[in-house]
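Hi L., both proteins are below.
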Amino acid sequence: MATMTAVAFVGLGAMGGRMARRLVDAGYQVTVWNRTAARCEPLVALGAQAAESPAAAAARADVTITMVSDPAALWEVSEGPEGIAAGIDHSATLIEMSTIGPAGVTRLATMLPDGVVVLDAPVLGSVSEAEAGDLGIFVGGPPESVERWRPLLSTLGSPRRVGPTGAGAAAKLTANLTLLGVLGVLGEAIALAQGMGLSREATFEVLSATPLGAQAERRRDAIETGSFPPRFALSLARKDADLILDAAAAAGVDMGLSRAARDWLVEAEAAGLGDQDYTAVLAHITGND
Protein backbone atom coordinates (compact mmCIF):
# COMPACT_ATOMS: atom_id res chain seq x y z
CA MET A 1 0.00 0.00 0.00
CA ALA A 2 2.76 2.44 0.95
CA THR A 3 4.39 2.87 -2.45
CA MET A 4 1.02 3.32 -4.17
CA THR A 5 -0.35 5.90 -1.75
CA ALA A 6 0.23 9.62 -2.19
CA VAL A 7 0.34 11.47 1.13
CA ALA A 8 0.36 15.21 1.78
CA PHE A 9 1.79 16.24 5.13
CA VAL A 10 1.10 19.79 6.26
CA GLY A 11 2.93 21.01 9.36
CA LEU A 12 6.55 20.01 9.98
CA GLY A 13 7.20 21.15 13.53
CA ALA A 14 8.90 19.07 16.19
CA MET A 15 6.20 16.39 15.94
CA GLY A 16 5.12 16.69 12.32
CA GLY A 17 8.61 16.61 10.89
CA ARG A 18 9.38 13.33 12.65
CA MET A 19 6.04 11.81 11.68
CA ALA A 20 6.48 12.77 8.03
CA ARG A 21 9.99 11.26 8.11
CA ARG A 22 8.55 7.92 9.20
CA LEU A 23 6.13 7.93 6.26
CA VAL A 24 8.93 8.75 3.82
CA ASP A 25 11.07 5.97 5.27
CA ALA A 26 8.13 3.55 4.97
CA GLY A 27 7.91 4.16 1.23
CA TYR A 28 4.91 6.45 0.96
CA GLN A 29 4.91 9.08 -1.77
CA VAL A 30 5.00 12.12 0.50
CA THR A 31 4.46 15.76 -0.46
CA VAL A 32 5.23 18.22 2.33
CA TRP A 33 4.42 21.84 3.12
CA ASN A 34 5.40 24.00 6.05
CA ARG A 35 5.07 27.71 6.75
CA THR A 36 8.86 27.83 7.25
CA ALA A 37 9.91 26.24 3.97
CA ALA A 38 13.39 25.31 5.21
CA ARG A 39 11.84 22.56 7.32
CA CYS A 40 10.91 20.74 4.12
CA GLU A 41 14.52 20.43 2.98
CA PRO A 42 15.64 17.41 5.07
CA LEU A 43 12.58 15.47 3.91
CA VAL A 44 13.09 16.46 0.28
CA ALA A 45 16.65 15.14 0.58
CA LEU A 46 15.15 11.79 1.60
CA GLY A 47 12.74 11.66 -1.35
CA ALA A 48 9.72 13.77 -0.41
CA GLN A 49 8.42 16.51 -2.67
CA ALA A 50 7.84 20.08 -1.49
CA ALA A 51 4.64 21.88 -2.44
CA GLU A 52 4.27 25.62 -2.86
CA SER A 53 1.06 25.76 -0.82
CA PRO A 54 -1.22 23.55 1.31
CA ALA A 55 -3.68 23.50 -1.60
CA ALA A 56 -1.00 22.21 -3.98
CA ALA A 57 0.09 19.56 -1.48
CA ALA A 58 -3.46 18.30 -0.98
CA ALA A 59 -4.18 18.28 -4.73
CA ARG A 60 -1.53 15.58 -5.24
CA ALA A 61 -2.66 13.32 -2.42
CA ASP A 62 -4.96 10.41 -1.66
CA VAL A 63 -4.74 11.42 1.99
CA THR A 64 -3.74 14.72 3.58
CA ILE A 65 -2.42 14.83 7.15
CA THR A 66 -2.37 18.02 9.22
CA MET A 67 -0.17 18.42 12.29
CA VAL A 68 -0.10 22.02 13.49
CA SER A 69 0.10 23.84 16.81
CA ASP A 70 -3.45 25.06 17.42
CA PRO A 71 -6.84 25.79 15.78
CA ALA A 72 -5.70 29.18 14.44
CA ALA A 73 -2.80 27.51 12.62
CA LEU A 74 -5.16 24.91 11.19
CA TRP A 75 -7.52 27.55 9.79
CA GLU A 76 -4.51 29.30 8.27
CA VAL A 77 -3.51 26.20 6.29
CA SER A 78 -7.06 25.07 5.52
CA GLU A 79 -8.94 28.17 4.39
CA GLY A 80 -8.54 30.61 1.49
CA PRO A 81 -7.34 30.13 -2.10
CA GLU A 82 -4.06 28.52 -1.00
CA GLY A 83 -5.60 26.36 1.74
CA ILE A 84 -6.19 22.62 1.85
CA ALA A 85 -9.92 23.00 1.20
CA ALA A 86 -9.19 24.70 -2.14
CA GLY A 87 -6.98 21.86 -3.36
CA ILE A 88 -8.20 18.60 -1.87
CA ASP A 89 -10.08 16.21 -4.14
CA HIS A 90 -13.63 15.27 -3.16
CA SER A 91 -12.65 11.58 -3.07
CA ALA A 92 -9.68 12.08 -0.75
CA THR A 93 -9.32 11.68 3.03
CA LEU A 94 -8.09 14.27 5.51
CA ILE A 95 -6.55 13.02 8.75
CA GLU A 96 -6.34 15.81 11.32
CA MET A 97 -3.70 14.89 13.93
CA SER A 98 -3.36 18.18 15.85
CA THR A 99 -5.07 18.87 19.17
CA ILE A 100 -7.96 21.18 18.26
CA GLY A 101 -10.98 19.83 20.18
CA PRO A 102 -14.30 18.49 18.84
CA ALA A 103 -15.59 21.93 17.82
CA GLY A 104 -12.51 22.43 15.66
CA VAL A 105 -13.06 19.09 13.93
CA THR A 106 -16.65 20.05 13.16
CA ARG A 107 -15.58 23.37 11.68
CA LEU A 108 -12.89 21.69 9.59
CA ALA A 109 -15.34 19.14 8.18
CA THR A 110 -17.80 21.84 7.12
CA MET A 111 -15.23 23.75 5.06
CA LEU A 112 -14.10 20.77 2.96
CA PRO A 113 -15.71 19.69 -0.33
CA ASP A 114 -18.53 17.16 -0.19
CA GLY A 115 -17.18 13.63 -0.28
CA VAL A 116 -13.96 14.26 1.63
CA VAL A 117 -13.73 11.89 4.60
CA VAL A 118 -12.40 13.47 7.79
CA LEU A 119 -10.68 11.39 10.43
CA ASP A 120 -9.57 13.11 13.61
CA ALA A 121 -6.54 11.31 14.99
CA PRO A 122 -4.71 13.36 17.62
CA VAL A 123 -1.71 11.76 19.27
CA LEU A 124 -0.52 11.00 22.78
CA GLY A 125 3.23 11.25 23.17
CA SER A 126 6.06 13.62 22.40
CA VAL A 127 9.06 13.89 20.11
CA SER A 128 10.76 10.65 21.15
CA GLU A 129 7.55 8.66 20.57
CA ALA A 130 7.03 10.42 17.22
CA GLU A 131 10.55 9.50 16.13
CA ALA A 132 10.16 5.87 17.20
CA GLY A 133 6.64 5.42 15.82
CA ASP A 134 5.28 4.77 19.32
CA LEU A 135 2.57 7.42 19.49
CA GLY A 136 -0.83 6.63 20.92
CA ILE A 137 -3.38 7.65 18.28
CA PHE A 138 -7.06 8.25 19.11
CA VAL A 139 -9.07 7.98 15.91
CA GLY A 140 -12.57 9.25 15.24
CA GLY A 141 -14.34 8.46 11.98
CA PRO A 142 -16.29 5.90 9.95
CA PRO A 143 -15.10 2.34 10.71
CA GLU A 144 -14.34 1.50 7.08
CA SER A 145 -12.22 4.64 6.65
CA VAL A 146 -10.34 4.01 9.87
CA GLU A 147 -9.54 0.49 8.69
CA ARG A 148 -8.47 1.76 5.27
CA TRP A 149 -5.87 4.05 6.82
CA ARG A 150 -4.87 1.86 9.75
CA PRO A 151 -1.64 0.65 8.03
CA LEU A 152 -0.55 4.25 7.46
CA LEU A 153 -1.40 5.30 11.01
CA SER A 154 0.36 2.21 12.35
CA THR A 155 3.58 3.55 10.84
CA LEU A 156 3.24 6.42 13.30
CA GLY A 157 2.04 4.56 16.39
CA SER A 158 -0.84 2.51 17.77
CA PRO A 159 -4.19 3.68 16.39
CA ARG A 160 -7.40 2.90 18.25
CA ARG A 161 -10.82 3.89 16.99
CA VAL A 162 -12.80 5.58 19.76
CA GLY A 163 -15.97 6.52 17.88
CA PRO A 164 -17.30 8.64 15.02
CA THR A 165 -15.64 11.76 13.64
CA GLY A 166 -14.92 14.09 16.56
CA ALA A 167 -14.41 11.28 19.06
CA GLY A 168 -10.64 11.31 18.58
CA ALA A 169 -10.49 14.97 19.56
CA ALA A 170 -12.72 14.27 22.57
CA ALA A 171 -10.49 11.39 23.67
CA LYS A 172 -7.34 13.51 23.39
CA LEU A 173 -8.79 16.25 25.60
CA THR A 174 -9.87 13.64 28.13
CA ALA A 175 -6.35 12.18 28.22
CA ASN A 176 -4.67 15.58 28.46
CA LEU A 177 -6.96 16.60 31.31
CA THR A 178 -5.51 13.80 33.42
CA LEU A 179 -1.93 14.86 32.63
CA LEU A 180 -2.51 18.51 33.48
CA GLY A 181 -4.57 17.72 36.58
CA VAL A 182 -1.97 15.34 37.99
CA LEU A 183 0.77 17.96 37.61
CA GLY A 184 -1.35 20.50 39.47
CA VAL A 185 -2.01 18.13 42.37
CA LEU A 186 1.63 17.00 42.49
CA GLY A 187 2.89 20.57 42.54
CA GLU A 188 0.49 21.59 45.29
CA ALA A 189 1.35 18.51 47.37
CA ILE A 190 5.05 19.37 47.20
CA ALA A 191 4.33 23.04 47.96
CA LEU A 192 2.20 22.07 50.97
CA ALA A 193 4.86 19.72 52.34
CA GLN A 194 7.49 22.41 51.79
CA GLY A 195 5.33 25.01 53.56
CA MET A 196 4.80 22.74 56.55
CA GLY A 197 8.51 22.04 56.90
CA LEU A 198 8.79 18.47 55.59
CA SER A 199 12.18 17.71 54.13
CA ARG A 200 12.41 17.05 50.42
CA GLU A 201 13.45 13.47 51.13
CA ALA A 202 10.47 12.90 53.43
CA THR A 203 8.14 14.54 50.93
CA PHE A 204 9.05 12.12 48.17
CA GLU A 205 8.96 9.18 50.57
CA VAL A 206 5.38 10.12 51.48
CA LEU A 207 4.39 10.64 47.85
CA SER A 208 5.80 7.22 46.93
CA ALA A 209 3.06 5.64 49.05
CA THR A 210 0.27 7.50 47.23
CA PRO A 211 -1.39 7.25 43.80
CA LEU A 212 1.03 10.03 42.72
CA GLY A 213 4.06 7.88 43.49
CA ALA A 214 5.09 7.08 39.93
CA GLN A 215 4.64 10.67 38.76
CA ALA A 216 6.54 12.04 41.75
CA GLU A 217 9.48 9.75 41.07
CA ARG A 218 9.42 10.54 37.35
CA ARG A 219 9.48 14.30 37.95
CA ARG A 220 11.81 14.35 40.97
CA ASP A 221 15.05 15.03 39.12
CA ALA A 222 13.54 17.92 37.14
CA ILE A 223 12.06 19.43 40.31
CA GLU A 224 15.33 19.16 42.24
CA THR A 225 17.55 20.44 39.42
CA GLY A 226 15.13 23.03 38.10
CA SER A 227 15.77 21.78 34.57
CA PHE A 228 12.76 21.10 32.35
CA PRO A 229 14.01 20.18 28.85
CA PRO A 230 11.22 20.96 26.37
CA ARG A 231 9.31 17.99 25.03
CA PHE A 232 5.86 19.62 25.06
CA ALA A 233 5.82 23.40 25.44
CA LEU A 234 3.97 24.82 28.43
CA SER A 235 2.23 27.32 26.13
CA LEU A 236 0.73 24.43 24.17
CA ALA A 237 -0.41 22.76 27.40
CA ARG A 238 -2.16 26.01 28.33
CA LYS A 239 -3.80 25.99 24.88
CA ASP A 240 -5.01 22.44 25.53
CA ALA A 241 -6.38 23.48 28.92
CA ASP A 242 -8.35 26.22 27.16
CA LEU A 243 -9.75 23.65 24.72
CA ILE A 244 -10.71 21.35 27.59
CA LEU A 245 -12.67 24.09 29.34
CA ASP A 246 -14.32 25.18 26.09
CA ALA A 247 -15.41 21.59 25.38
CA ALA A 248 -16.66 21.19 28.96
CA ALA A 249 -18.71 24.38 28.69
CA ALA A 250 -20.25 23.16 25.43
CA ALA A 251 -21.11 19.84 27.12
CA GLY A 252 -22.51 21.49 30.25
CA VAL A 253 -19.90 19.85 32.50
CA ASP A 254 -18.48 21.71 35.53
CA MET A 255 -14.69 21.48 35.71
CA GLY A 256 -13.44 23.03 38.95
CA LEU A 257 -10.17 21.13 39.10
CA SER A 258 -9.48 21.73 35.42
CA ARG A 259 -9.97 25.47 35.85
CA ALA A 260 -7.45 25.43 38.69
CA ALA A 261 -4.94 23.46 36.59
CA ARG A 262 -5.38 25.96 33.75
CA ASP A 263 -4.84 28.87 36.15
CA TRP A 264 -1.47 27.45 37.16
CA LEU A 265 -0.46 27.13 33.50
CA VAL A 266 -1.61 30.67 32.73
CA GLU A 267 0.42 32.01 35.66
CA ALA A 268 3.49 30.00 34.68
CA GLU A 269 3.25 31.22 31.09
CA ALA A 270 2.94 34.81 32.30
CA ALA A 271 6.05 34.22 34.43
CA GLY A 272 8.03 33.46 31.28
CA LEU A 273 7.91 29.65 31.28
CA GLY A 274 5.85 29.26 28.10
CA ASP A 275 8.73 27.89 26.01
CA GLN A 276 9.85 25.41 28.67
CA ASP A 277 8.38 21.96 29.07
CA TYR A 278 4.87 21.94 30.48
CA THR A 279 6.16 20.23 33.62
CA ALA A 280 7.89 23.53 34.47
CA VAL A 281 4.53 24.46 35.99
CA LEU A 282 5.78 22.44 38.98
CA ALA A 283 8.56 24.98 39.53
CA HIS A 284 6.02 27.77 39.46
CA ILE A 285 3.61 26.08 41.87
CA THR A 286 6.41 25.32 44.34
CA GLY A 287 7.87 28.83 44.08
CA ASN A 288 11.11 27.74 42.46
CA ASP A 289 10.73 29.43 39.07
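That was the first. Here is the second:
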Amino acid sequence: MKTLFVSALFVLASTLSLSAIDLDEIIAKANAARGGEKAIKSINTLVQEGTMSMAQGFELNFTQTTKRPDKVRMDMSFQGSAIVQAFDGTTAWGINPMAGGKPEKAGSDEVKEMADRADIDGELIDWKSKGYALELVGSEDIDGSTAYKIKATKSEESSFIYIDAVTWLLAKIERKMSMMGQEADVEMVFSNYQEVNGVQMPMLVEMRNDGNTMMSMTYSSIKANVDVPDGRFAFPGDDGSKK
Protein backbone atom coordinates (compact mmCIF):
# COMPACT_ATOMS: atom_id res chain seq x y z
CA MET A 1 0.00 0.00 0.00
CA LYS A 2 2.83 2.38 0.88
CA THR A 3 4.50 1.69 -2.47
CA LEU A 4 1.28 2.45 -4.33
CA PHE A 5 0.87 5.68 -2.36
CA VAL A 6 4.43 6.82 -3.16
CA SER A 7 3.93 5.94 -6.83
CA ALA A 8 0.70 7.94 -6.93
CA LEU A 9 2.47 10.95 -5.41
CA PHE A 10 5.25 10.66 -7.99
CA VAL A 11 2.77 10.57 -10.87
CA LEU A 12 0.89 13.53 -9.43
CA ALA A 13 4.08 15.53 -8.97
CA SER A 14 5.16 14.77 -12.53
CA THR A 15 1.78 15.83 -13.90
CA LEU A 16 1.83 19.08 -11.96
CA SER A 17 5.36 19.79 -13.12
CA LEU A 18 4.41 19.27 -16.77
CA SER A 19 1.30 21.42 -16.47
CA ALA A 20 3.22 24.25 -14.79
CA ILE A 21 4.86 25.32 -18.07
CA ASP A 22 3.08 27.03 -20.92
CA LEU A 23 3.55 27.03 -24.70
CA ASP A 24 5.55 30.27 -24.86
CA GLU A 25 8.05 28.98 -22.30
CA ILE A 26 8.53 25.72 -24.19
CA ILE A 27 9.11 27.55 -27.48
CA ALA A 28 11.58 29.94 -25.83
CA LYS A 29 13.50 27.09 -24.19
CA ALA A 30 13.51 25.04 -27.40
CA ASN A 31 14.87 27.91 -29.49
CA ALA A 32 17.48 28.71 -26.83
CA ALA A 33 18.57 25.05 -26.63
CA ARG A 34 19.21 25.03 -30.37
CA GLY A 35 21.55 27.99 -29.97
CA GLY A 36 19.27 31.00 -29.93
CA GLU A 37 17.30 32.81 -32.61
CA LYS A 38 20.24 35.04 -33.61
CA ALA A 39 22.54 32.07 -34.26
CA ILE A 40 19.82 30.15 -36.09
CA LYS A 41 19.04 33.08 -38.39
CA SER A 42 22.76 33.70 -39.05
CA ILE A 43 22.82 30.50 -41.12
CA ASN A 44 22.07 31.40 -44.72
CA THR A 45 23.03 28.12 -46.38
CA LEU A 46 23.42 24.51 -45.23
CA VAL A 47 25.17 21.69 -47.06
CA GLN A 48 24.38 18.33 -45.45
CA GLU A 49 26.02 15.12 -46.62
CA GLY A 50 25.27 11.61 -45.47
CA THR A 51 23.80 8.19 -46.07
CA MET A 52 20.15 7.23 -46.44
CA SER A 53 19.43 3.67 -45.29
CA MET A 54 16.20 2.01 -46.40
CA ALA A 55 14.30 -0.75 -44.60
CA GLN A 56 14.62 -2.87 -47.75
CA GLY A 57 18.36 -3.06 -47.12
CA PHE A 58 19.86 -0.67 -49.67
CA GLU A 59 21.63 2.66 -49.10
CA LEU A 60 21.96 5.94 -50.98
CA ASN A 61 24.52 8.68 -50.57
CA PHE A 62 22.99 12.14 -50.53
CA THR A 63 23.77 15.83 -50.35
CA GLN A 64 21.05 18.25 -49.28
CA THR A 65 21.67 21.93 -49.94
CA THR A 66 19.41 24.59 -48.41
CA LYS A 67 19.54 28.35 -48.93
CA ARG A 68 17.51 31.30 -47.74
CA PRO A 69 14.91 32.12 -48.70
CA ASP A 70 12.98 28.96 -49.56
CA LYS A 71 15.49 27.06 -51.67
CA VAL A 72 16.45 23.40 -51.28
CA ARG A 73 18.02 20.68 -53.39
CA MET A 74 18.59 16.98 -52.65
CA ASP A 75 21.12 15.08 -54.76
CA MET A 76 21.20 11.29 -54.35
CA SER A 77 23.34 8.61 -55.93
CA PHE A 78 22.25 4.99 -56.31
CA GLN A 79 24.09 2.37 -58.36
CA GLY A 80 25.66 5.03 -60.53
CA SER A 81 22.40 6.90 -61.21
CA ALA A 82 21.76 10.48 -60.11
CA ILE A 83 18.44 11.40 -58.47
CA VAL A 84 17.53 15.05 -57.90
CA GLN A 85 14.74 16.83 -56.01
CA ALA A 86 14.86 20.63 -55.97
CA PHE A 87 12.86 23.77 -55.21
CA ASP A 88 13.84 27.32 -56.17
CA GLY A 89 11.23 29.08 -54.06
CA THR A 90 8.55 28.79 -56.73
CA THR A 91 9.10 25.69 -58.86
CA ALA A 92 9.63 22.16 -57.56
CA TRP A 93 11.32 19.77 -59.95
CA GLY A 94 13.23 16.53 -60.08
CA ILE A 95 15.25 14.05 -62.08
CA ASN A 96 14.29 10.38 -61.78
CA PRO A 97 16.40 7.87 -63.75
CA MET A 98 13.53 5.37 -63.52
CA ALA A 99 11.31 7.81 -65.43
CA GLY A 100 13.66 8.68 -68.26
CA GLY A 101 16.24 10.75 -66.38
CA LYS A 102 15.01 14.09 -67.72
CA PRO A 103 14.19 17.11 -65.50
CA GLU A 104 10.46 17.28 -64.79
CA LYS A 105 8.49 19.95 -62.94
CA ALA A 106 6.43 18.72 -59.99
CA GLY A 107 2.86 19.37 -58.92
CA SER A 108 1.40 21.50 -56.15
CA ASP A 109 1.72 18.80 -53.47
CA GLU A 110 5.46 18.51 -54.10
CA VAL A 111 5.78 22.31 -54.06
CA LYS A 112 4.29 22.47 -50.56
CA GLU A 113 6.47 19.61 -49.28
CA MET A 114 9.65 21.13 -50.71
CA ALA A 115 8.78 24.56 -49.32
CA ASP A 116 8.54 23.01 -45.85
CA ARG A 117 11.92 21.32 -46.31
CA ALA A 118 13.47 24.63 -47.39
CA ASP A 119 12.73 26.27 -44.03
CA ILE A 120 16.12 26.38 -42.26
CA ASP A 121 14.63 27.85 -39.08
CA GLY A 122 11.86 25.32 -38.40
CA GLU A 123 8.28 25.82 -37.28
CA LEU A 124 9.04 27.38 -33.88
CA ILE A 125 10.89 30.43 -35.24
CA ASP A 126 8.53 33.25 -36.32
CA TRP A 127 5.68 30.74 -36.28
CA LYS A 128 2.92 33.36 -36.25
CA SER A 129 4.19 35.18 -39.35
CA LYS A 130 4.52 31.81 -41.11
CA GLY A 131 0.81 31.21 -40.56
CA TYR A 132 1.03 28.49 -37.91
CA ALA A 133 -1.36 28.07 -35.01
CA LEU A 134 0.36 26.25 -32.13
CA GLU A 135 -1.28 24.48 -29.20
CA LEU A 136 0.29 22.61 -26.28
CA VAL A 137 -1.67 19.38 -26.02
CA GLY A 138 0.26 17.47 -23.35
CA SER A 139 3.29 15.22 -23.07
CA GLU A 140 4.31 11.76 -24.24
CA ASP A 141 7.12 9.25 -23.83
CA ILE A 142 9.54 9.01 -26.75
CA ASP A 143 12.07 6.20 -26.51
CA GLY A 144 12.11 6.48 -22.72
CA SER A 145 12.18 10.29 -22.47
CA THR A 146 9.32 12.69 -21.75
CA ALA A 147 8.53 15.24 -24.46
CA TYR A 148 6.03 18.09 -24.73
CA LYS A 149 3.56 17.64 -27.57
CA ILE A 150 2.66 20.72 -29.62
CA LYS A 151 -0.01 20.69 -32.31
CA ALA A 152 0.95 22.85 -35.30
CA THR A 153 -1.83 23.78 -37.74
CA LYS A 154 -1.39 25.63 -41.03
CA SER A 155 -3.83 25.83 -43.93
CA GLU A 156 -6.09 23.29 -42.18
CA GLU A 157 -3.27 20.72 -42.06
CA SER A 158 -1.87 19.64 -38.71
CA SER A 159 1.33 18.04 -37.47
CA PHE A 160 2.70 17.37 -33.99
CA ILE A 161 6.03 18.67 -32.69
CA TYR A 162 7.66 16.98 -29.68
CA ILE A 163 10.20 18.86 -27.54
CA ASP A 164 12.34 16.88 -25.10
CA ALA A 165 11.49 17.95 -21.54
CA VAL A 166 15.14 17.71 -20.41
CA THR A 167 17.30 18.81 -23.35
CA TRP A 168 14.59 21.06 -24.88
CA LEU A 169 15.67 19.89 -28.33
CA LEU A 170 13.32 18.68 -31.05
CA ALA A 171 12.69 14.97 -30.44
CA LYS A 172 10.08 14.09 -33.04
CA ILE A 173 7.64 15.40 -35.64
CA GLU A 174 4.49 13.53 -36.64
CA ARG A 175 2.71 14.35 -39.88
CA LYS A 176 0.84 12.80 -42.76
CA MET A 177 2.98 12.21 -45.84
CA SER A 178 2.45 10.70 -49.25
CA MET A 179 4.13 7.31 -49.55
CA MET A 180 3.86 5.12 -52.65
CA GLY A 181 0.88 7.18 -53.75
CA GLN A 182 -0.93 6.78 -50.42
CA GLU A 183 -1.19 9.01 -47.37
CA ALA A 184 0.45 7.62 -44.23
CA ASP A 185 1.18 8.78 -40.68
CA VAL A 186 4.94 9.27 -40.47
CA GLU A 187 7.15 9.95 -37.44
CA MET A 188 10.49 11.71 -37.89
CA VAL A 189 12.67 11.05 -34.84
CA PHE A 190 15.74 13.28 -34.30
CA SER A 191 18.84 12.36 -32.28
CA ASN A 192 22.64 12.60 -31.96
CA TYR A 193 22.74 16.39 -31.88
CA GLN A 194 26.00 18.21 -32.66
CA GLU A 195 26.84 21.89 -32.84
CA VAL A 196 27.18 23.47 -36.28
CA ASN A 197 27.96 27.20 -36.47
CA GLY A 198 26.60 27.64 -32.93
CA VAL A 199 23.38 25.73 -33.62
CA GLN A 200 22.49 22.22 -32.41
CA MET A 201 21.58 19.96 -35.34
CA PRO A 202 20.56 16.27 -35.40
CA MET A 203 23.04 13.95 -37.11
CA LEU A 204 20.48 11.13 -37.25
CA VAL A 205 16.88 11.32 -38.49
CA GLU A 206 14.69 8.21 -38.51
CA MET A 207 11.40 7.98 -40.37
CA ARG A 208 8.97 5.54 -38.75
CA ASN A 209 5.53 4.20 -39.55
CA ASP A 210 3.57 2.10 -37.05
CA GLY A 211 6.69 1.92 -34.89
CA ASN A 212 8.86 0.51 -37.67
CA THR A 213 11.83 2.42 -39.09
CA MET A 214 11.34 2.77 -42.84
CA MET A 215 14.35 4.98 -43.49
CA SER A 216 17.17 6.59 -41.56
CA MET A 217 19.38 9.52 -42.58
CA THR A 218 22.84 9.60 -41.02
CA TYR A 219 24.72 12.85 -41.57
CA SER A 220 28.50 12.61 -41.94
CA SER A 221 29.04 16.33 -42.58
CA ILE A 222 27.03 19.53 -42.10
CA LYS A 223 28.53 22.83 -43.26
CA ALA A 224 26.96 26.26 -42.77
CA ASN A 225 27.19 29.43 -44.86
CA VAL A 226 28.79 27.78 -47.87
CA ASP A 227 28.62 29.92 -51.03
CA VAL A 228 25.89 28.37 -53.22
CA PRO A 229 24.60 30.15 -56.37
CA ASP A 230 20.84 30.48 -56.84
CA GLY A 231 21.14 28.69 -60.17
CA ARG A 232 21.88 25.49 -58.29
CA PHE A 233 18.19 25.27 -57.38
CA ALA A 234 16.65 26.44 -60.67
CA PHE A 235 14.91 24.16 -63.14
CA PRO A 236 17.50 23.43 -65.88
CA GLY A 237 17.21 26.08 -68.55
CA ASP A 238 15.33 28.56 -66.33
CA ASP A 239 18.64 30.02 -65.11
CA GLY A 240 20.19 30.19 -68.57
CA SER A 241 22.27 27.04 -68.08
CA LYS A 242 21.90 23.44 -69.17
CA LYS A 243 22.93 21.73 -65.91
